[in-house]
Write a structure and sequence with these properties.
Blueprint (H helix, E strand, L loop, with lengths): L1 H27 L5 E3 L2 H7 L1 H38 L5 H54 L4 E3 L12 H10 L11
Parallel strand pairs: 1-2
Helix pairs in contact: 2-3, 2-5, 3-4, 4-5
Length: 183
């Protein structure tokens, strides 16, 4: 029985010795620093993103109002046609129906063009914001000696989240000219 206890105690000494050696080895290795940036928050909260959104709204406001007015006029004309259709002659009804179909086709085309133009401009503006944000992320990572910055993760410990630092740096850079791409 005493031999079993000594053997078990001896077995415990080996792992304890190995554990004592691990901290010494860990001290000689570099630590790997990981940070996380939430790109959705950057696009919602950073001043350059808000400025880009305001610019787009101002740029497309008139066209949007014109489309809304055209859609309302088409709806009113359609409702009027429905009310008066029974009192119209066959040729008048066919003529007004064709006119309504043409108006609707024109409205749908203008709406598609508006949406395509808006999406293209939005992509241009977002690309500029992303490029600027990526430069800031890189600056923060280099200044604080991060080895990797992630933008997507299933889980991230909040202590690794540098989104606030990036937003603050982006907001501080508002008004200063953006460096040329590739720098």
């Amino acid at each position: 029985m005493k031999h079993l206890i000594r053997a078990a105690a001896g077995a415990l000494l080996v792992p304890a010795f190995l554990l004592a050696a691990v901290p010494a080895q860990a001290q000689t290795q570099e630590t790997f620093r990981i940070g996380f940036v939430n790109p959705d928050r950057v696009l919602r909260e950073a001043q350059p993103a808000k400025a880009a959104q305001a610019k787009l709204e101002a740029e497309f406001l008139k066209r949007e109002k014109d489309l809304t007015a055209q859609g309302d006029a088409l709806k009113t004309a359609s409702e009027k046609f429905e009310r008066e259709a029974s009192t119209l002659t066959e040729s008048q009804r066919v003529s007004r129906q064709r006119a309504l179909v043409d108006q609707d086709r024109d409205f749908q085309r203008k709406r598609r063009e508006f949406q395509e133009d808006l999406n293209a401009r939005k992509n241009e503006e977002l690309q500029q914001v992303y490029e600027r944000a990526n430069r800031v992320v890189k600056q923060v990572a280099e200044a604080e000696k991060y080895d990797a910055i992630l933008q997507e993760a299933i889980y991230i410990n909040p202590k690794h989240d540098i989104t606030d630092k990036v937003i603050k740096a982006l907001n501080a850079s508002v008004g200063s000219p953006a460096p040329a791409a590739g720098k």
